[in-house]
Amino acid sequence: MTESAQGWSRRDLLRRSALVATGAVAGAGALNAWLTHRRLPLAGGPASATIGNDQQNVGSGALPVVWSVSTTRRLVALTFDDGPAPQWTPMVLDTLAEHRVPATFFLVGAQVRRHGDVVRGLLAEHEVGNHSWRHRDLAQMDTAAVYDDLRRSHDAIADVTGSPPRLVRPPYGHLGGAMLHAAARLNYRLVLWSLQMVEREYPGDPAGHARRIVAGVRPGTIVLGHDVGDPRRLVALRGLPDMITGLRARGYTFVTVSALLGAGVAPTSTG
């Protein structure tokens, strides 16, 4: 019998067998993913942005998430995460004071409790935000744990600085439903960033790193930096004066995140 009379050539059989095998693997993968998904604690778990069926009690009922601000004005906000700590935070505060630059510090609650003397009375010209209690990944925690974490940090920051935070930045920029729900309950604005300091790309070259940041800023940029961490990050802090003078030479004014949010304008309609 010929291949055409048979209707199925050897090549056809091999191809169809391969497709069946591939489909079986894909089906097994999808089934495994579905089963894994079903094992997650969905209600009240890390992915859930609601708790139960009762009234949610989430502050104003909305949670703005901000990466940058749409504005035609040459405004930029410097932000520093993970502090305070005695090694680097005073260096940052001294540089900002010398150049009369306000900034926003996203503080870790446990660090505030441990090193409150580093910032006590020194943040009057600046703004503070909540960066969690111990810098754990809030996107992997359930709703009750995330709220307890942020609430504990909120209270520590308010006690030591005298300013209850109104902004929150989750560690690593990771967002989960539980994190969003907790932030809404605390009536926060959630602030990420649109430009990050990249110290590891400029080892031993503070001036080069400063030039990179100056060139990358646009009106309404929120810049992420750190005042705690790997010593390689000192490249950015040592280049902070050059960063400030370079941006001012481009006509930029430094503001806190909240001031930047207040200066935002609606995007121009293209319709």
UniProtKB/TrEMBL annotation:
<dbReference type="InterPro" id="IPR006311">
    <property type="entry name" value="TAT_signal"/>
</dbReference>
<dbReference type="GO" id="GO:0016810">
    <property type="term" value="F:hydrolase activity, acting on carbon-nitrogen (but not peptide) bonds"/>
</dbReference>
<feature type="domain" description="NodB homology">
    <location>
        <begin position="74"/>
        <end position="255"/>
    </location>
</feature>
<dbReference type="InterPro" id="IPR011330">
    <property type="entry name" value="Glyco_hydro/deAcase_b/a-brl"/>
</dbReference>
<dbReference type="InterPro" id="IPR050248">
    <property type="entry name" value="Polysacc_deacetylase_ArnD"/>
</dbReference>
<protein>
    <submittedName>
        <fullName>Polysaccharide deacetylase family protein</fullName>
    </submittedName>
</protein>
<dbReference type="Pfam" id="PF01522">
    <property type="entry name" value="Polysacc_deac_1"/>
</dbReference>
<dbReference type="GO" id="GO:0005975">
    <property type="term" value="P:carbohydrate metabolic process"/>
</dbReference>
<dbReference type="InterPro" id="IPR002509">
    <property type="entry name" value="NODB_dom"/>
</dbReference>
